[in-house]
Amino acid sequence: MKISFIVLTYNRTDALLAVLRSLAAQCGEDHEVLVADDGSRPEQVQMLLAQCPVFRCPARHIWHPDVGFTAARARNLGASRATGDYLVFLDGDCVPNKAFVAAHTRLAEKGCFVNGSRVLISQRLTERVVNGAIDLPSRPVWFWLGARLSGGSNKLLHLLPWGRRLFRVKPDFHWHGIRSCNLGVWRADFVDVNGFDETFEGWGHEDADLVLRLHHLGIHRKNGFMGTEVFHLWHRENPRDQESINKKRVLERMKTDVVLADKGLRELDSSPGVKSTVKITPLNGSNSSL
Questions:
Q1: Cβ atoms within 10 Å, residue 12
Q2: What is the pLDDT of residue 276?
């Protein structure tokens, strides 16, 4: 099984580099990394190209123009260029724990997608991470116990591995805890639902919509707690003006059997300007080839 890791980013290369350093330490020749860039500024892109860690697998940067919050489009672009059998979506401010790749590999199961877990990191600890003063995946148990007690993190689940299938698979649709910042799905299933729906505007619930349509397709949710944790670096919350509208759309779709996104993977090549503006660049230090 070849896994493609699709990492969403936007103007936060210092955090993205922490994510890529962790992936580079874990990924082998049977993996692939695609940075799905939602229109970062030129100086942010140059920082990425100059400081990207060395990968043993192909690694590419896929950029499209900044036209607002279009995370669904960026993720679809990344997925459309992926060659893996299995896709793992990550956010560029979510640093994988040291067993992240192995956990997603172990939990991948036909007929299921994996809803990953996260550990929230405080603003103070985040500053140390992005400044390069600390590498979260390599921190020992005592560090995390101290971070939990001091408010540096909100949980310790990544210290308690649970390799069993028990309690993981949920046959029904559950809204709670769905996050595209850490989600694994078979490429064939992602294609069958036409990917993320780009008609969801602004922040919120395009990931729940994807999961709902996977559920309508007959794909079950498999929770990745105690294994797939990522360390979600602190940031100011994005504007949530569209959240209630997007949530209402998902609630309405729950009453239907809709499987396909209104505007997704199939519409990428027909979107005005896409072919002429998308830039795909091999990342420094990888064995990428276009």
A1: 17
A2: 56
Task: Provide the CA 158 distance to its chain's centre, in angstroms.
Answer: 18
Q: Is 150 left (phi over 0), alpha (psi -120 to 50) or beta?
A: alpha
Structure confidence by residue, pLDDT tens digits, 59-74:
999 999 988 888 999 9
- For 113, the enclosing helix (H) or strand (E) is strand 112-115
User: Which amino acid, 85?
Assistant: D
Residue whose pair of structure tokens reads 């148990």 in the numeric block: 141
Enclosing H/E stretch for 4: strand 3-9
The DSSP result for 161-177, as a single string, is ---S-TTTEESS---TT
The pLDDT tens digits of the residues spanning 113-156 come to 999 999 999 999 999 999 999 999 999 999 999 999 999 999 99
Domains of the chain by residue range:
3-282
Which of 98, 156, 154 lies closest to 126 in space, CA to CA? 154
Right CATH number for 3-282 from 3.10.450.50, 3.90.550.10, 1.10.1660.10, 3.40.640.10? 3.90.550.10
